[in-house]
């Protein structure tokens, strides 16, 4: 909120906007927060300090033991928490370094990049995955706890882009089916099996 930004920047009212107000200090304080992606602080005459910022948005939580490492679309670590953040959980990555404000480091760099790309497409195509599990052959992306898409990240992304996956899910939901496996192969091939 605006009030939180003022407190985080250690901004004070009633002072002179030229003397006693260090714009670089306000900017530096705000940039210490991992959620701040782009911060601009300037004087707006006659009596205002204007703060414009762009916040990072959390897109996934990489599961690390009993912890959740919350990351943005670029893999920047926003926080490390024991509380489930209620966003897409990602399982099966081997974390080598976690530092708030820095990119998460994992052994499976390509899988992480593909997963972040898949999550970006998911959001733009009105889809939601509860969790994503890395497998040897690709990924298992769960829309519900008992309804899973299986395939390579590329095939899942292609199926979302051409909206075939959305059509299948809508058809299943219309039939009141909330359990099973959707297998996604290359091209236009999508199959459904009621077993999970």
Describe the protein in words.
- This protein is an alpha+beta fold.
- The chain is 27% helix and 34% strand.
- Strand 1 and strand 2 form a beta hairpin.
- Helix 3 runs parallel beside helix 4 (153-161).
- The radius of gyration is 21 Å and the shape is elongated.
- The chain starts with a helix and ends with a strand.
- Helix/sheet category: alpha+beta
Major β-sheet strand ordering:
5-4-3-6-9-10-11-12-13
Helix content: 25-40%
Radius of gyration, CA atoms, in whole angstroms: 21 Å
Helices, by number, come to 5
| Elements, N to C (H/E) | HHEEEEEEEEHEEEHHEE
Total DSSP E strands: 13
Question: How do the helices and strands line up, and which of them pair or pack?
Answer:
Blueprint (H helix, E strand, L loop, with lengths): L1 H7 L14 H9 L4 E9 L3 E8 L2 E7 L2 E6 L4 E5 L7 E3 L3 E3 L7 E2 L2 H16 L6 E4 L4 E6 L2 E5 L1 H9 L2 H11 L5 E5 L5 E4 L3
Parallel strand pairs: 3-6, 6-9, 11-12
Antiparallel strand pairs: 1-2, 3-4, 4-5, 7-8, 9-10, 10-11, 12-13
Helix pairs in contact: 3-4
Labels describing this entry:
5 helices; single chain; 196 residues; nine-stranded mixed β-sheet; alpha+beta; 13 strands
Summarize it:
With 196 residues, the chain is of the alpha+beta class. Helices cover 27% and strands 34% of the residues.
